[in-house]
Design a protein that fits this description.
heterodimer; A: 95 residues; mainly alpha; Histone, subunit A; two-stranded antiparallel sheet; 3 helices; B: 473 residues; alpha/beta; Amidase signature (AS) enzymes; ATP-binding (chain B)
Amino acid sequence: MIDREQVLHVARLARLELTEDEVEHMTGELSKVLGHIDKIAELDLDDVAPTSHVVTVENALRPDEPEPSLPRDVALASAPAVSDDGFLVPSPQAG
Amino acid sequence: MPTDLTAVQAAEAVRAGELSATELFDAYRERAAADDLNAYTWVADAAPTEAPPADAPLAGVPVAIKDLFCTEGVPSQAGSRILEGYLPPYTATSVARLAAAGAPLLGKTNQDEFAMGSSNENSGYGPVLNPWDRTRVPGGSSGGSAAAVAGGSAPWALGTDTGGSIRQPAALTGIVGLKPTYGAISRYGMIAFASSLDQAGPLTRTVADSALMLRHLQGADTRDMTSVGLREEIVLPTAERLDGIKLGVPEELSGEGIEPGVRDAFERSLQLAEELGATVESCKLPHAPHALSAYYILAPAECSSNLARFDGVRYGQRVEADTLMDMYTRTRHDGFGPEVKRRIMLGTYALSSGYYDAYYGRAQRVRTKIAEDFAAAFERFDFVVTPTSPSVAFELGAKTDDPLSMYLNDFCTVPMSLAGIPAISIPNGLSDGLPTGLQLAAPAFAENKLLDAAHALEAALGFQRLDQRETVA
């Protein structure tokens, strides 16, 4: 179960604006999905190691050889707004 | 007609001088441009100016590419409005490898937004229609790739599979779909959904076509440090029999929840496998019923992190606002569709303080148990076989209001994804006039064996694909 306050909190963490309607829908839908997912609480998993990655890869390294990186103008070409040679964003503070 | 040939046949015909690569490309380009299934989000204007060398292994056989593969200078929007008009400055390794082997880009295919979905109804560019019945979904998330191949507008296509996104649409459109071992193919340039699960793979008319594409896709890549490649070269499958092969049928994935018509088709295929010399026995994957729960924690958790990059700063769409925070939250509100928002929320919740151990931590442990279940099954069996999808293609709109019922479509395909093992779906006959799929799963890196067995079954099943039926009609 997840309530309205939790939905609003999680949306803030996720940097996601939700309309009133979306908050209401999300609360119901997520509760239903979590109700199904909660079944894994029944399993005894105390002595089980977690798996984060299925194929064993140890210290995957490549030779440390310099090579050209993306040119600045190419990296900036898809940005919604640029200023001089950087990404342009609104001020972090209001006003 | 050049478009009647499988990819293997077309490549042979071009190399033998019986067919020109340009003629082949143009025939498909014309079909792709006239596509009315909404399978494509972009189609090439013309054949590449530089024809592939005469000895190129893929000999100019064009390939349709799922939208989420970055292709330099070509729209790559991952089915999302937040990336509308995005032209990447580089090309995904897998796409570059196919091009280097002589397979030029035919078009980009529609998909569920950021590969999240099982029906292709979550695309920001409209749903894809199933060529078997245009009132039904083609499956997802590689629905455009599947519809393009099944509808005959592409000889073959590249897709991605995170929890079934190659296998399920292949099953629902009556074609072959292969999810290789995790790490077989580089993920560099694939717009990420869930990095520990995402894997590229072929959607093709035949098992041999899948083998041919995989041969040129696989390999370690210094730009994806989780890629390891396969341990042996992929050969074209030749097996006609299954003598000595042991097939395990997991009770948990073949009984309850499978539509009767799908189950009947599955049972018939098991009988056929026995006639080919295989032994068929039931087996157990005790934790498989929990796979879906683990998946719907792990995949959203990884997605909530991966999709943090779509914030209106470096690429894609932006909604202007007075403050940085408002710009982020409004851009993401307007740019993402409902399913992507749901998964970001679910994943953020599962990773948030106080819930991490109960959800993410437990799901990772369930993942271990599922991998152990498969390892135990493979001590007794060569392959695990199941229906690919519990149902045939459903009607557009049938499940859009109920996310959980949509998620249950992935019930037979998710366990293999969590275990990282290869699995293939082949056409398994019809139920009520619609295709069903047979899934075979093998131990990691056993692709050659898997393709051989699938090839033998494919020949014995003798399924007539839609493009073959239409040619006859």
